[in-house]
Amino acid sequence: MTTTTKPATPVAASHGRRPGGGALALRQGRLEITQFLRSRESVVFTMGFPIIMILIFASIFHGTIGGGVRFTQYFITGMIATGLMTVSFQNLGIWIPIERDRGVLKRYRGTPMPKWVWFAGKVIMVVAIGIAETALLLAVAVALFDLDLPGTAGKWFTFGWVSVLGVTACTLCGIAISSLARTARSGSAVVTPVALVLQFISGVFFVFTDLPTWMQQVAALFPLKWMCQGLRAVFLPESFGAQEPGGSFELGRVALVLALWCVIGLVLCLTTFRWTTKRDG
Fold this sequence. Notes:
ABC_2_transport; mainly alpha; Nod_factor_ABC_transporter; globular; ABC-type transporter activity; 281 residues
């Protein structure tokens, strides 16, 4: 467990001026990143889990899955997606209830700092850790498993927008689901099972089309499946798209579903987020 840092209040800058909103957001982002890095459990799980899973699965499964695609190449796309979901959805869904239960959010609400700055700090933390985690994952995959990186600017662009939309949707959903946890201890119990189920049915650990049809249909309702599919379009050959359920990578539908989940997540955040526990009123 980390020691919760007392929320910072705006401090007068030079010449008696208060820092602007952007400066406050960056300051809050640095605070969030520092608190994350001080939690060894969070760092090891968030940064190490995808790498550990790659090492395990690469040791178990060998060969190709069709179309000249190695299983490790396919599996790595899912682990990038689940890594981004972990740092956003799972991390926020677990830690926000802890901050709420300890009264940290209540104290933030009582400071002159605009409320949006706190949310901006969380977003900055998610983006920074997500970039670092993805870079580390790609480096390990290239070094140990000969991962073929995207060879065109178009694929890197696709990698960028899929990651941005996916992280945005997962971040908003993580903030929203944090309101379901009544206590600090229940945050993990609420979020972790949801994350694990989504990973198993979304083509992270197994080839998506090998899953039962009903499971594929359920997974299609949630963003992780579409993140994985979008990333497969980046790291797998174009010809592999014919093996997807829709007969192609369906990047237009990927963008539409992820954007829709961004809207859904935002609505849920605005309507359900709580700064205090029920016992605080």
